[in-house]
What does this fold into?
Amino acid sequence: MNKMTVNEAIGQALAEEMRRDPRVLMFGEGVATKRPELVTEFGAKRVRNTPLAEGIIAGTAAGAAATGLRPVIDLLFAPFLCFAMDEIVNSAGKLRYMSGGQFEFPMVVMAMTGAGWTVGAQHNHNLEAWFVHSPGLKVVMPSNAADFKGLLKAAIRDDNPVLFFTDLALGYTPGEVPEGDHIVPLGKAAIAREGRDITIVSYAKMVGSCLQAADALAAQGISAEVIDLRSLKPLDEETILRSVRKTGRLLVVHEASRMCGVGAEISALVTEQAFDALKAPILRLTGPDAPAPSSYPLEQAYLPQPDAIAAAARRIAGHVRTGPLHVIPADAMTA
It folds into this structure.
């Protein structure tokens, strides 16, 4: 095991895949400036900065993928993906299907998302559900350094376009990363903590908050199982359903707003396929349906915090049966 930050794990994954496969190249907004070590090793032809033109970057990547290359592009902040929706969703996501499988589109689209650095609403918006809803695309959002490396390597090797979201607040978070060719398969969730009384499902930095909540719940005699989705699409339905059938209770936590979010899909999945196992209503604890604030205290109030997660879990477990929970926004508590 080696200890490194999330950003270092991403860099290591890129370097290893570029050494392994000469078809892998990286371009985008500031990539050569941010990762000069890659330029030194692989040259300016394989690692290059681009103009701030997200549609052109994504369109170039789709064309490169169709001609046999394996591009990795960085569009910086998730809201900037709005400028590349046609190229990502309408071209890369559909053309393999439309070609009858004659073409492959092995491209990775990287973007930063989430609160933590007070970058303001136009740079901070969790849009992952948009791409989960788009046919032909895969979507991953890791929570720790080991998974960032393993999932990025798997994404680069995949023959389909993959949206790879980096939760901004995790960039300098250290973690243990296995040595060697560490691969985490797309579509496989991780059980971050085993439990018997309630299942808490989350992804990205909210996994850490859920684990803190699970510690607090354990001190009160409630055993919470925490599932880290890692991949939002493909979704590991088997792991979710197995856990809920064991615990009988489900809380889904994510930073993105509640309406039509990933939590809604998971709630529907469990209702359709494991309703008979449920002992309590499913709850979703999410961010509000509002643009993200740029003030740090307001930004933290915008997020589901460990205390609120623990309170929601207690409510499901029957420890708080009636009355509002002031620490949880009313709209976030609606199942």
Observations:
- The chain has two domains: 2-177, 190-333.
- The longest strand covers residues 70-77.
